[in-house]
Give the backbone structure.
Amino acid sequence: METKLTIRLKKRVIERAKDYAKNHKISLSKMVESYLESITESQKDEPEITPLVESLSGVIHLSDDFDLKQDYSNYLSDKYK
């Protein structure tokens, strides 16, 4: 369902937006809708997991007492000696 929205913007912003929309062969309404969709969609609680990442999940098994920060610190110390 589509509905109307009235917004107030500076005249020069509207003119530049109309020019941009015309140059990109898109309606100003569609441009605003796409922008609003993109900024509200990124506020999901959890990021989307791609199929590749999903397939790699569980490939590496570490012991419960493994200290990742300490291991990485040791790696960097050895690398930059």
Observations:
- The two ends are 64 Å apart (CA to CA).
- DSSP finds four helices and no strands in the chain.
